[in-house]
Amino acid sequence: MADPAAPSSPPRRxxxxxxxxxxxxxILNYLDRNVIFALFEPIKQELGLTDAQLGWLGSAYILxxxxxxxxxxxxxxxxxxxxxxxxxxxxxxxxxxxxxxVRSYWQLFVCRAAVGIxxxxxxxxxxxxxxxxxxxxxxxxxxxxxxxxxPVGGVLGLLLGGWLEGIYGWRVxxxxxxxxxxxxxxxxxxxxxxxxxxxxxxxxxxxxxxxLGVRGFVRQLWPAIVxxxxxxxxxxxxxxxxxxxxxxDVAVFSVAITIGVALTIWRWVRLLRLNRxxxxxxxxxxxxxxxxLVSAGQRVLGTPTLVYVFLAxxxxxxxxxxxVGWGPTFMTREFGLTSGQAATLLGKWGLLSGVLxxxxxxxxxxxxxxxxxxxRVITVAIGLLLGGPMAAYLLxxxxxxxxxxxxxxxxxxxxxxxxxxxxxxxxxxPARVGATVSGAFLLFIHLAGDAIAFPxxxxxxxxxxxxxxxLALPLVSTLGGVVILGALRTISRDMKRARGEx
Length: 502
Hints:
Low-confidence stretches: 1-7, 209-213
Strand content: under 5%
CATH architecture: Up-down Bundle
Order of helices and strands: EHHHHHHHHHHEHHHHHHHHHHHHHH
Largest sheet: 2 strands, antiparallel
CATH superfamily: MFS general substrate transporter like domains
Strand order of the largest sheet: 1-2
Radius of gyration: 22 Å
Number of strands: 2
Mean pLDDT: 79
CATH topology: Growth Hormone, Chain: A
Number of helices: 24
């Protein structure tokens, strides 16, 4: 376990170098997760999928990402944050590239799910390190720069995915965007943690530090592993028997996973009751992690500002990520464009507006923060209440020449929330549990947000058409802007409590 160190403020040059590297990795993070949305149409045609199945391909990543974010947030609080990040980057890069070699829907489903594990390792640890690199008044702008990777990477995923697919096909697109992550994994392993003294990071040290072992892993999780493979086999049989209807095969797989996890937990409880603690993963250190996990949940429920942040974050995730995911497909069908043309248009207009929006959000939040502690909350609300209605109007536009400028303005305002909302979390919780609470935030907003949005819009699209189905997305984002206003009443009190003030 990394030892806590004393430095309260790392050297400015070191902090900015680390921030730029983490921001670039965040670009790759969202590039690799969003590239599939530029490839929906060719994947659908080659593998013979429905819109509902396309939606589940988007949610495969989100579901696993959400479930993994919280324990990996705990792990980054307990262990090496840069080790967690480096391992995550290497894992998601490998499975992104492997997506280009699949031959069936379920193979691609598994690859996208595995990408979620790797990318879940990045968010909480990177946010926690950035907060420690910039502990003072520059924190929101630093978070804004880190968060700028969300619109940049998201748009580049669409742009590069569409461009590469048009020239080389969707398989090469997956493989090409996965490769740069391996170099970044090496670079991040050389960073100096701002608040912890650690040994040089090597593969052996990571393995030893995380106390990994293949036999131990299998021994502890064998019920979940067995039922996962059983679920995959049963889902494949269901898919073959029922044809292209994703509802049956996904339901079978979900039930199998649930049974496997339940049996694994039941086995641990049984061993603990028999006083065979050594056969469970609950070492004293991990028990402390579980205590931190419970404490994080209690802290969220006991901190009114976090309740508003979590609820609004889920609504933003539902609406904004759903719009990004279905955007290229919407333009392809409604305006008669190819996948490459749709992704290129979204990329050119969205890249600049998304970057400017993320930076503007951080800048406005820090400016307002000079006068009121509510500045970051106000910034988030303004962005959503302006951008949400514009996005709703966008989906009614019939003319491509009007569509793109409206899209740019809507995306600019909808990108304001990224840095300020994350900064609010670290403003109202103690630093030692920041990554854990951040992981809880990612878990909640994605499970209650875009994990629902992708398959829901796909299923509604199969029945009512994509234009009608997509209207739910900006409406929910706008509601998130209303919900976050509730934090105006609570944030000052919660900030004082986090700082030990009266």
